[in-house]
């Protein structure tokens, strides 16, 4: 019996849980070399050590257990191994590209938030912005409920047609309607990414800006604060407001606490 090892010993030798070893037995990937018929204890032989090493090696590469089983059943055919290595390498390359996109998005998000919140929340300030490129979806939303519904369609379009998932978004809010009628009308939705057929530019320049944390349903008060600032300081502005959603957030009561930037270009 000295050439056999219990399932517990194998678990320690290879850092594989007993539950996993039992599952490998169940699916036929790694059968015990010997089972005591009286107590049903599983025993593994030292000759199986290489097989267990191969299972761990192939699993690290991301191969499925079914693929690993096929390779082992083929007596580790070089052709089959090489083919699956190429497949896994391609999959890993795709994953690396995906993770790179995610990391770039997170880095840009961190920089964007850090750059903006240093001015403080709920305070009006003047900020210079470089030229920014965006895609525009010419969809009118008369309230935040309509905006939410329209946004679902746009996000799906970005994911499916544009292959964009991690995109900063925002909207255009009509300056004249807000000033004259005291209401918010979203006349377009922006996605800050490049598209040859749908490319728009926010010009460089100084923007009257305010950043707040809260719900879009309460944003009218923040717009009024900017309008008052513009009036008191005799500032001439150009075009409409840009409402940029820096980061969506909710609190423990599921109440929206998003970080939102409102800005309008000085003349």
Automatic annotation (TrEMBL):
Transcription regulation in keyword set: yes
Any coiled-coil regions, as ranges: 82-112
Record domain HTH merR-type: where: 4-74
UniProt GO molecular function: DNA binding; DNA-binding transcription factor activity
Swiss-Prot/TrEMBL keywords: Coiled coil, DNA-binding, Repressor, Transcription, Transcription regulation
Residues spanning the signal sequence: none
InterPro entries in the cross-refs: DNA-bd_dom_put_sf (IPR009061), MerR-type_HTH_dom (IPR000551), MerR_fam (IPR047057), Reg_factor_effector_dom_sf (IPR011256)
SMART domains: HTH_MERR (SM00422)
Protein name: Transcriptional regulator, MerR
Organism of provenance: Romboutsia ilealis
Organism lineage: Bacteria, Bacillati, Bacillota, Clostridia, Peptostreptococcales
């Amino acid at each position: 019996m000295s050439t056999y090892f219990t399932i517990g010993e194998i678990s320690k030798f290879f850092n594989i849980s007993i539950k996993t070893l039992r599952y490998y037995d169940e699916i036929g990937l790694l059968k015990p070399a010997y089972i005591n018929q009286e107590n049903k204890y599983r025993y593994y032989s030292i000759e199986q050590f290489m097989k267990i090493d191969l299972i761990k090696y192939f699993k690290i590469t991301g191969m499925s257990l079914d693929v690993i089983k096929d390779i082992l059943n083929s007596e580790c055919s070089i052709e089959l191994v090489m083919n699956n290595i190429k497949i896994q390498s391609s999959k890993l390359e795709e994953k690396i590209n995906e993770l790179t996109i995610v990391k770039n998005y997170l880095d840009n998000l961190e920089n964007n938030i850090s750059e903006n919140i240093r001015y403080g929340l709920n305070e009006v300030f003047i900020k210079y912005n470089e030229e920014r490129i965006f895609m525009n979806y010419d969809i009118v939303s008369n309230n935040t409920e309509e905006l939410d519904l329209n946004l679902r369609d746009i996000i799906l379009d970005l994911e499916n047609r544009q292959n964009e998932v991690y995109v900063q978004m925002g909207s255009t809010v009509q300056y004249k309607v807000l000033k004259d009628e005291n209401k918010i009308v979203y006349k377009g939705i922006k996605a800050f990414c490049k598209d040859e057929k749908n490319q728009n530019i926010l010009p460089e320049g100084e923007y009257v800006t305010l950043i707040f944390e809260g719900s879009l349903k309460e944003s009218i008060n923040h717009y009024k604060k900017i309008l008052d600032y513009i009036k008191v300081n005799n500032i001439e502005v150009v075009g409409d407001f840009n409402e940029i959603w820096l980061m969506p957030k909710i609190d423990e009561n599921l109440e929206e606490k998003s970080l939102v930037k409102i800005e309008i270009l000085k003349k």
